[in-house]
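Quick log. Single chain, no ligands specified.
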Amino acid sequence: MAETRKASRFIVPVAVAGVAAATIGLVPALAASGDPDLPEITAAQLIEKIAASDTQTLSGTFRISTDLGLPALSGLASGLGGGGTSSADPTEKLTQLFSGSHTLRVAADGPDRQKLTLLDGSDEYSLVHNGADVWAYDSKSREAFHEKLSDDRGDRGEEGPEGLPGSPKQLADEVLKAAGDTTSVTVGGTAKVAGRDAYQLVIKPKQNGSTVESVKIAVDAATGTPLKFTLASVEGGKPVLDAGFTKVDFGRPAASEFDFKAPKGAKVTEGAAEKAGEDAGAESGGHGGPFGDALPGGLGGGLADLGGDGVNVIGEGWTTIAKLDTGAPAPKTEDAPKEFQGFLDSFGDKVSGKFGSGTLFKTKLVNALLTDDGKVYVGAVTKDTLVNAANAAK
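-> predicted structure:
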């Protein structure tokens, strides 16, 4: 037990970097091949086209590649002492989408039926929302996870297929909500995506100090549906996030696509809402959609969720920084359990300034400064911007 409590102190910087990476900013790098000749359109008109899109049905193949510049996360969950959960639980299984490249099959038929299948060689992981039921099944472990949705979570007509976690539509909506005076929005030509003619919406910060270089959203010229989303870092290299369809069909999928019955002999785990009853299910909401915010593209919650009323916001726009005061000295990396030491050291740098000293946990998108006196500064900003903010707050 002592070792478990000791380990939990070192989850904080990992959680800060990981959760913030899922809730701040976005970036691009869309390769154009055989660009179609389409009528000219302004950025405002293209944004209106996205907003007016009412795609309710689709199916296809989806490819998502994520490169946050983090060391491998596999096996980290087991080091947290979080045993006892099903391998089919979406919050456990889908963390692998934080790194590497993955192929998924997706299908949607309005707000009540969606299906996502993660392909991993001959193994498949399926997540199915059909009415009031959410099922997940891991063919490798032969484990299933089931949760019964309460009425307020199962009836969300406004979400539609964009409720699919990490979909280009969901990602585009989050970026467009944040666009303002600190943002440049232009049309950057056209592209072919999944065999469809598309416009490219290019979004860039006007401010210096952001880790975001740009965001590109490929928008279907006919329907206004975002088909591809690419997020690039000022550090260059591979995109931080490259998510889009390789095949897409806007026809209605067969109803049988969303049928699910746990295979004979499979171990079935019921979700917390199902086990605790309807009232507990309503209280445990906050999943952000039928499939929740388990994917990197979930983007729900925001930085304020990390510390509630204890979060102070510094700056605005793309250089916004969240400051948290833990009220306790930061744990020393050398005191961490062995399973965490290498992980923390691999993306943590010692830094100092007028604020004192601390450790900077870095990714290609989000950086977090944990000072030795227990303050945390986190944002999609460069190292120097974080240090300057800490110095100014001293």
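Residues 329 and 373 are 4 Å apart (CA to CA).
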